[in-house]
Amino acid sequence: MLQGTVYKSTGKHYWVKTSKGLFKCHLRGRTRKENQNSTNPISVGDFVDINVIENQDEFLGVIHTKHPSNNFLSRKATQHKQKRQIIASNIDRALVIITFKQPKTHVEFIDRCLVNLEFQKINSCLVFNKLDIYDDREQSEVDQFMNLYRNIGYRCFKVSAKTGLNIQSLKDFMSNKLHLLIGNSGVGKSSLINSMAPSLNLKTTHLTSKTHVGRHTTRRAQLFELDHNIRIIDSPGIKGFGLVDIPKKEIKHQFPEFLKRSHQCSYSDCWHINEPNCHVLEAVHSGEIASSRYNSYLSMLQTDLKYR
């Protein structure tokens, strides 16, 4: 039996990288039934054991066992609202790719990504892409957003996949880690990978001309190896981000700037909504906590039906 890491999945077949090479595998029926909470029992990044199938023409195998995951990022499944779809597992760091136009990334989407990642204890970094198409006002807006999230404690980069701006600095930061790229369709995830490793020549598409909304280029998550021991998981574009695994009472704990102040609240179980002597609310009113972040928090407490 060989141990390996899942590099690609089509839902039916899984490509597993082992010390003996890359094997095209299918899943043992018993393993498929073990996790009924997810639509995909195996995801990219999973550590698995495989049995090799003797074949002279191909490296084939059967996934026998999935090892417990250190972490995973999930979303609500499209067709099964009560189940999760796991995007990727065993992630060292996530890069949230953001654009201010063509298409525009909304603040609440950013915050929902970060809350999901905080809950799974996955380190996060914000990457502001397409700097080559912004005017002076938009460049200033990028700087304001970077300052907001840097003050919370998130590392931020501004780059251009098209011109190569700051791509080398981003690569240096990514050395020796497994990174997951997440973001809306059209923000340039595949283009960023191409700018770091042109030989991969991943497929990219232009935005739709009428709506300036991205079209899905990456259909399924896939892991790529770059130089300097950089490994990247490219994921399909996400429109919204439902909090499928996070109880409502835990949401407030995923905002680092809330945690710094919540211990001073009069109530240990303060929801930071209308309680007296709430230091989080005081910080919002004084401007120490960004109103955009607080509004995202309130939205996450509401019914989550429109997000997945």
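(the above was protein one; protein two follows)
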Amino acid sequence: MNGIDDTVTVITGAASGIGREVAADLARHGARIAAVDIDPDGLATTTHRLEAEGHKAHTFTTDITDTAEVEALFDRVETLLGPITTAISAAGALTTGPVTDCTDHHWHRMIAVNATGVFAVGRAAARRMGPRGHGSLVTIASNAAGIPRSGMAAYAASKAAAVAFTKSLGLELAPLGVRCNVVSPGSTDTPMLRAMTPEPQTLVNGEPERFKVGIPLGRLGRPEDVATAVRFLVSDAARHITMHELYVDGGATLR
């Protein structure tokens, strides 16, 4: 997949899980990585992993829910590494449970990270990539954004907002040569998923009492499955793809 080598790539949520795997995957293909997260210890672990593989990542401890901080982040990255050509929103927050038990704090936190964070990154990227006439954005959403999930209403709403925003931004930026796409994973074996359920096999089998089918491919996703999809969408192989939502869920949403 051409078009990745020597690109300046901002990745939020890079301290763990899918974000860390995306950073490692793109670094292996020559991207210059700006790894972003609110967790400095997790960013250090990401950096050590990349260095062990012979790659370098610049880390930026940033709260993506603060839109002014995100604008400053993009300025710092461009000063240090050059024009940003790829922006990937992989940061996420998840709290599960019935709507009646969802606190205001948890609602606002998921909206802030999963929706406002995507808005802040997308706007900052658009302001820089649009005038240059080149660039690619990818939002890591969730298959929960496209199908009702019991116990995940707030999370699903926040991810649905991220999907709608990314596609609408893609429509605005398409005439300028900037592509915006979405990758929507299903149940993926990450620390976030392990914290959500102690028995991941139930996700593979399905839960009829919660109106949830299983995973037809018979396994949980891996972060590298998502990272490969992201790599395709930011590469020249996907040069004619924009406003697309790619499900990486083993068929769990029957799409």
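Reviewer note on protein two: The helical segments are 17-28, 40-52, 67-81, 104-132, 153-173, 191-196, 201-205, 223-234.
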